[in-house]
Amino acid sequence: MSKHSIDTPAPAVAPAIDPRLLVREEGFKGYATEFKRKVRGGELGSLPVVIGLIIIWLAFSLNDSTYLKASTATYVAYYGVGIGLLSVGLVFVLLLGEIDLSVGSLSGLSAAVFAVLAVNHGINPWVAVLVTLLTGAVIGALQGTVFAKLGVPAFVVTLAGFLGWQGVMLWLLGTTGTINLPDTGLNHYLQGSSFFLNGDIAGAYILAALGVASMLIGNIIEQGRRRKAGVPFRPTSEIGLRVGLLAVGAFGIAYILNQDRGIPDATVLFLALLIITDFVLRRTSYGRKVFAVGGNIEASRRAGINVAAIRISVFAISGAFAALAGMAIAGTTNAAGQGGADPNNLMMAIAAAVIGGTSLFGGRGRVWSALLGVLVIESIQYGLNLLGLTQDANYMIMGAVLLAAVIVDSLARRTQKSAGRA
């Protein structure tokens, strides 16, 4: 080997550039640079879902001019709540790379528990709600314990729950198979006739203003905190752009909903829970631990994270959301019945999370995935209903959409590995 080859220094590796610094130094040009970098690295985010939604809306509107009406928005906003709540709980489990197949049956069981307590035994409806949510959380924690402590695969544990809890639900409902729910307590706000501020036009606009204001205040506080700490922060121009886009979307949706009856109370509850759970996952140490365990279990153990406790907790959260979802689904018919444990609810909830961008392989996703996925699913279902297609076509189309979402997820992960970002 020549002296020249020995003395030649190795090529320097370009240091990673923080996206906030890139935007601050290059202005809006930095957005384009950062977007290209993410796409090349397989970090597609919500882009495939947004493109898919635009295609879906255009396709159905071209076939039926009544599709793009305010009544469609109200339908999607209301009937997507039950599946959306199921999906939010599943996002926590999917972030660990696991699955909970029991949520569909557990939602039906929870509605039955509420009905038996509030109707058959005359217990205060709000107390019955609390007991119902605790029932879902305890059952979820029990299944999580069997998985985390005994080492039984989550697929097997929750598959057993899928069968077992459905049997308990049928036993509670009795020979009639249905218990009508009272128009009181939480059930009143989960009904299709219940709208925020009694459907007053100001209701939707107030919510839009609160959402925009909270985002603006939160971004300004974070910017000040990071500036004071001397670390990269979002420039004011980016904050203004983000808040402006949110304002356009929020007030636009509020305007559309107000053309019908306003925003359903059930949707308000769903959005509030999305904000809370998003904060928990992105802004708390617990959320960081969930992502850490989902990304690398062994590294999490060495970092001192109680992996078993995290696993049990996410299944408890999934169970609690399944219980609330069961009440929301029962609210659409004002009755707790066998349909509350419809296996299709489970499939649609998993599909919503995956279509929205949560990875089946763990470590990547957000609770807002549930909202995006539900928008896709309910938009398709409403469009198919308008076209008069049969249920078999509905199943085939939804299966194709889910498969496409999983393929996109797999290709994105492969690209990330190639780019050294997985």
From TrEMBL:
Entry membrane topology: Multi-pass membrane protein
The entry's keywords: Cell inner membrane, Cell membrane, Membrane, Sugar transport, Transmembrane, Transmembrane helix, Transport
Main location: membrane
Transmembrane segments: 44-63, 75-96, 103-120, 126-147, 154-174, 194-218, 239-257, 263-281, 308-331, 343-361, 368-387, 393-412
Cross-referenced InterPro entries: ABC_transp_permease
UniProt-annotated location(s): Cell membrane
Its job: Part of the binding-protein-dependent transport system for D-xylose. Probably responsible for the translocation of the substrate across the membrane.
PANTHER family cross-referenced by the UniProt entry: ABC TRANSPORTER PERMEASE PROTEIN YPHD-RELATED-RELATED (PTHR32196), XYLOSE TRANSPORT SYSTEM PERMEASE PROTEIN XYLH (PTHR32196:SF32)
Protein name per UniProt: Xylose transport system permease protein XylH
Taxonomic lineage from the root: Bacteria, Bacillati, Actinomycetota, Actinomycetes, Kitasatosporales
